[in-house]
Amino acid sequence: MSSKRNINNIRKNYSLGIIGGGQLALMLTEAAKNRNLDVCVQTKSPFDPAALKADYVIEADPLKIKGNKYLLNICEKIIFENEWIKIEKLKSFESDNVFIPSLKAIQPLVDRISQKKLIDSLNIPCPKWTTLKNFKKLTEEEIKKWNFPLMAKSNKGGYDGKGNKKIHNLDELDSFLVQNDYDEWLIEEWINYDSELALVGSRDQNGKIRVFPIVQTFQANKVCDWVLAPAAKNYDLNSFALNIFSSIVNELNYVGVLGIEFFFGINGLLVNEIAPRTHNSAHFSIEACTSSQFDQYICISSGITPPEIKMISEGAVMINLLGLKKNFPISIDSRLKLLSQVKGANLHWYGKSKEILGRKMAHITFLLKGQTHLERLQEAEEILVKVRNIWPSPNAPKNKLK
Hints:
The protein is of the alpha+beta class. It has 13 helices and 18 strands.
């Protein structure tokens, strides 16, 4: 229900408060309930995914400071569904010890430009980049050193391919420079890569780091289509990725769960983006690991020692289920029923009220038995065909499986 009491006179009745009410908040709420913890969420609608399972709902936009204050007064610790928060306004509460991760730790990660500056300061490899404002100041000779195509990225709010634009030539570049605000975009060199990888891990209050296996993500139209865990084993690559993760979280004294997306190819391992939260690439951990990414975040936030992370199967495949067109011939209920009948299916329905084209509606995970990477890949591809015959992707996959 929605709360209307005086926000200054409320006892802290809830172990955890979550700013946001989408599917990530839903799975955090489920993990908290598995630990017998009470949860309050701040979200726009009582029909949002997390609101359906939370103990209490503050019906308010997660960016609204009054709702944030209310949440702060009734919850022991506050965690975040995503990084799109108003840091300066939250700092005004002078209660940074309540937020996990701390506002100081998350601040360099809330937009792409500050992320890039952090990565550069740690000498971590990433694609060459500059702000649109600085790019505009380059001479013609300097611009020639940037080969087309280029990638333009919005500074804030980019996810699932949103806020990204491929620029093919000078004409498109000139048009883009005229039409867009210089403070809101950055320009990045185009990277030709062999695969996209992701690493999600946690760091607890004592500074101990735990990581999930590195996974390979397969994209369709800039949106994650499916995930194979673990990726092909490469000791040097795994060690380098772990060192990058450790460098970032230790530098920031970051407490919580964090994900890193990588490009891997002829240029080696490059950091694409950092997600200071739970991440789509580690949803497989709910079934495939001794502790999920959501459980790690819940434990760390509530003072419980997180379990060590180990795979309990040889591997896993996680497939995203996105909204289809209104005239799709098979109803949602029929699709869900058919998917639940596929052997080994672990279906996670997000409970969203409307099916909108391209919207993340659910995901489905299968544990794999193959002893080698090739065997697991073949097993995953066979499962993917079965799932897509029932619930196709609205984005035709263009990448070749590897």
